[in-house]
Amino acid sequence: MTQSTASDFDDQETSYYEAHRKVYPRDINGRFANLRKIAAWVLLGIFYGLPWLRWHGRQAILFDLPARQFHIFSLTLWPQDFIFLTWLLVIAALSLFFFTAVAGRLWCGYACPQTVWTEVFIWMERITEGDRSRRMKLDAAPWSGDKLARKGAKQFLWVAFSLLTGFTFVGFFTPIEELGGLALHAELGPWETFWIFFYGFATYGNAGFLREQVCRYMCPYARFQSAMFDRNTLIITYDAERGDPRGGRRRGENPRDAGLGDCTDCTLCVQVCPTGIDIRSGLQSDCIACAACIDACDSVMDRIGYARGLVRYTTQNSLDHGRSHILRPRVIVYFTLLASLCSGFALALARRAPVALDVLHDRNSLYRVLDSGEIENVYLLKIMNKDGTAHRFQVRLDPRHTANTTLQLDPSTPPFDVPDGTVFNAAVRVRRPAHADDRSITPLRFAIEAVDAPTLRADAEARFFAPRE
């Protein structure tokens, strides 16, 4: 029996980790490529353009964290409106489930920020380094003046675009015109500087360096999407029954006479794939459903005179049985829940009170006895004007809660002018005679009403404290 040595095991050692191979996606034209470009332009236009829009003298979209206000055109959301943000996140998640169940990874292929920004970075790479074959040759070639110039131009565009992205993102939280002035005079604060460079670096790293690796290894959506798929979900697939066996053929030759299918094995569908997969191997988690392979295959079919659709959007049931069912239980459930949530959100937003009132009792003393013998309590009223217009508010005690008491609001309490989108602090006093009531704690309710708009009202409860008799 031969004794094994350590060197024998070293010789047999194999790696279970595949080294990363750079993907060089080939440019392709077609109907789905045009749709992706339109979607990218629209989404990028929204992202880079929204911070510059003005609305009634202020930035239309501004998430003002120091002031704890979210301005969305005429709507101003406060911390008390956090439920609406939660509601929106639930709607977004359910929308993803619904569209995935119906049309697969539609989000990934056309609207995901990773996809959109990667498209832009690849476009800048094409204009500086050339098409797919030239990029591959350039990377394999030794360093030269031409290679340094092309690589340098690409990096300059990437870095500039990444910094613009970081600047625009921060512009949603700091007024972008003010941010631009600070940047031009090199007076940015530490936090603005940090977040501009942080999001710029994230854009550069994800869209320029990592690219498809984000979709393959970092994005959780690719891992749990299969839970929302079924045999009637629309996916991109290769028709193996029609395409196999694969192989080259002469122009005009009937592939059936040569024992071949319609697939010419040109691998163009692999060359255009941004994640580098072969769609002919079946549905894979790396596929982002961008449909570049459909455009590529259709162009080949048109060139050799075959029918389109060898690679196409279809369902597994349609491939196997020639029919598919769009309306099915999970789709109906998703749609019903989504419609209910959207309707409820719109109704709640429409009925959202434009005015709110909070009452804080004076913390320094529960009560004080005046020279006249009256008992006085001091309150701080926080009047929140969520309306888009400044209003003058009159404060009073709600008679429904003070009818059986001798509580009276200080008659010298004036109306308060509250600008739009602000919280106004108003100090008010409430009094009662010393021996008019034997209760040490009396509930009461403050009410405010806009003088110029009586429908704008709000109220809040409080308690009146007095010494025990």
What integer is the average pLDDT? 89
Annotation field: number of helices: 17
Q: By helix and strand content, what is the structural category?
A: alpha+beta
Distance between the termini: 105 Å
Largest sheet: 5 strands, antiparallel
Provide a concise account of the structure shown:
The chain is an alpha+beta fold and 469 residues long. 42% of the residues lie in helices and 18% in strands.
What are the SSEs and their pairings?
Elements (H helix, E strand, L loop, with lengths): L5 H7 L18 H19 L4 E2 L2 E2 L1 E4 L4 E4 L2 E3 L4 H22 L2 H5 L2 H17 L2 H9 L4 H26 L5 H9 L5 H21 L1 H7 L2 H4 L10 E4 L1 H4 L24 H4 L20 H13 L6 E4 L1 H6 L7 H22 L4 E7 L6 E2 L5 E11 L5 E7 L1 H4 L5 E2 L6 E3 L3 E11 L8 E10 L6 E9 L4
Antiparallel strand pairs: 1-2, 3-4, 4-5, 6-7, 8-10, 9-10, 10-14, 11-13, 11-15, 12-14, 15-16
Helix pairs in contact: 2-5, 3-16, 5-7, 5-9, 7-9
Q: How would you sum up this structure, described in words?
A:
The chain is α+β, with helices and mostly antiparallel strands. The chain has two domains: 332 residues, no CATH class; 111 residues, Immunoglobulin-like, CATH 2.60.40.10. The chain is 42% helix and 18% strand. It contains 17 helices and 16 strands. The strands form five sheets. Strands 8, 9, 10, 12 and 14 form a five-stranded antiparallel sheet that branches. A hairpin with a 5-residue loop joins strand 9 and strand 10.
Notable characteristics:
469 residues, alpha+beta, Immunoglobulin-like, five-stranded antiparallel β-sheet, four-stranded antiparallel β-sheet, 17 helices, 16 strands, 18% strand, elongated
